[in-house]
Structures are given as C-alpha cells and as structure tokens.
Amino acid sequence: MSLGDDDYGSGGGHHVTRTRLPEGEVDPYAPPRRGGRGGRTGRPSHRNLMSVVAVAVLLIAAIAFANRGGGSGSGSADGEAAKGGPRSEATAPSGVKPVDGKTGGIASGFAHSEQGAQSAAANFAVALGGDGMFRADSRHAIVNAVYAPDVAAARQGDLDKVYSDQEFLKKIGLDANGNAPKGMTFVSRTNPAGTRVVKYAGDTASVAVWYSSLFGIAGESSTHPVADSWYTNTFDLKWTGDDWKVTGFTQKDGPTPVGRDQVASSAKEMSDAVEGFGGFTYAR
C-alpha cells in the first residue's frame, strides 16, 4: 500500500455501522483513525493503521490511507471530460479475457492497454490494502509483485519498518507477528468500486481507483470493531517486463456515500461474514 502523504486515521467521527467520513493528513503513529475505527472511544482507529502505512506510503510510495476529513475530490467527471481532462466510462465487456497469470499470488500479465492498466491498478489496490501486508513473508511477495523492480527494494525496507513497529501493531490490536488475538479475525480488505484513467501514454499510465475499505478485528470481545471508509488511490504505472507495475501513488479520502440507518451486525455475524465471503483475487 503506498499512497499519498496521508495517515491511516486520526480523528473522530467514524461509524462502526456506517461509512466513515475521511480526514486530513497522515500521522503514521497517531492513534487516530483509519477508515473510521477508533475515534470517539479513544481507541486506535482503522485509519490509524492506514495512517502509519500511509506515511510509508507517500514517502516510500508504499501505501497509506488518508485521514478522515481530507479532500473529497472536486469537479465532476463530465466537467473534466469537457475540459479535455480525465473521463469516466462504465466498465463494459471488451472481449479481452481476464489474466490467468499470478505473481506472488497476485494477478499478473495485464493487457498493454488502458483497460489493462485499470485492471492492474484495481488489483494492486486490493493487494496493498489486504491483511497480507501485515505479515513479513506475504508483504515481501506483494511488494515484489506489485512494484517496478527499480522501486521495490526501497519500498520494501520502508514498509518493513512501518508494519513491524510493535507500538503500531499493538494500537490496532495485533501481536508482534501481525496476528489477531486468539478466537478473533483481523480484517483489512479493499473493495474497488470503480477505476478511471487519468493519463495514458502507451508505456506509462496514471489510474485512479475508488474503493471502500474494511478494517478492524472481528470477535465478541474486540475493542477494534470492523468499520468501513472510502478512498481514492491514484497509481502511477509503467510497462516493464511485459506487465504493468507501480512506480508510485497518492491517496485521498472519499468520495464518501451517506451511511444508511442499518443495524450493526453482531461481532459473530461480522466474523462469520469475513471468513465465509472470500475477497476477490481479480478485479475488473
């Protein structure tokens, strides 16, 4: 996960049962919020986690989640298109088959096209925002699979420092190895809602991915309930080794939908859902 200079969260007003509103800049070690977890109760929020990674993200082009209350993006897609800027288009059948290759468990072998760049960006957002980033072995595999070779080494060291920080892990409820307490389930899942090509120049591309993020610990006695938040990551990609790879990216909060008045599920229901519904391994 390597985004802009934002942190995982710090700040209040998060909704455990609704979409959380974004915030400002990232403070990697602040016990704020990330996607709306801690907040009012004074507990480290899901965004707090993202904030830590966010620092590693922007600075190291790794991945971080912006603070709540940050920018929500201005200007409509139609307006940008009218000015000759980025334009949004609904995903439609193209006749191009999904990739069947995998590198480090992550989809690879994307088409050398705008659609291929969008598919790559969406999948990279999922990988960099997943719980695999909290374990050394899987984190190394993800970084090497997602980042361009000339960028991966630098990102690796920075991300290791962030994700292995004992104080940080403790604040989000994990042990020294990135594991949740016995009987509980750690949740860190990115769900892309759409992608948009910001710029495309053949061997380089800039693609924005709008997504919701679930973050927290599911379990009866969890003090870090799973909450959701919304972000937009803009990935800088380059065609290298016959595939798209990340060279850097930025992140901002939102756009964030208005939360509905739905009753929050019990800790058991949430845990069962997380374990029963596997995350997507291929987006778009």
TrEMBL record:
Keywords, sorted A to Z: Membrane, Transmembrane, Transmembrane helix
Transmembrane intervals: 49-66
DUF8175 domain sequence ranges: 103-253
UniProt-annotated stretches for the region Disordered: 1-45, 70-109
Keyword Membrane among record annotations: yes
Domain of life: Bacteria
UniProt name for this protein: DUF8175 domain-containing protein
Organism: Streptomyces cinnamoneus (Streptoverticillium cinnamoneum)
